[in-house]
Sequence to fold (143 residues):
Amino acid sequence: MDIIKIDESLLIQIANFVFLIWALNIVLYRPIRKMLILRKEKIAGLETQIEKSISDATDKDKALASGISEARVRGMKEKEALVSVALEKEAVIIEEINANAQANLTEVRNKVAKDVDAVRTSLLKEVDDFANSICQKIIGRTV
Fold:
C-alpha cells in the first residue's frame, strides 16, 4: 500500500483547482449570471408594461363607460325635448281641428236650422192645401 505523500504536487493541484475555478468563473459563470440579470430585468420591464397596459385598459374602459352613460343622458334629454315639442304640436293641431270642427258644426247647425225653417214654411203652406182637399173629400164639396 502506498501512503499519500504531501509534496509539491498538492500545491500544484490546489493551484490547478483555483485556476480552474477562476477560469470557469470568467468563461462560464459570469456570462450566465449576466444573462440571468438581463433576463430578470427584461421580465421586470415586461411586468411593468403589463401593469401599465392593464391600468390603461382599465382607464379606457372607465372612460368608455362614462362616455356611454353621458351619451345615454344626452339621448334621454333629446328624447324628452322631442317629446315635449311633439306634444306641443299635437296640442296645436288638436286645437285647430277642434276650431274647424266647431266652425263646421256651427255651419251645419245654421244650415239645418235654415232647412228646417224652409221645410216648415213650405209644409205650413201645404198643410192648408191638404186640409182643404181632405175636407172636400170628406164633405164632398168645396170649403
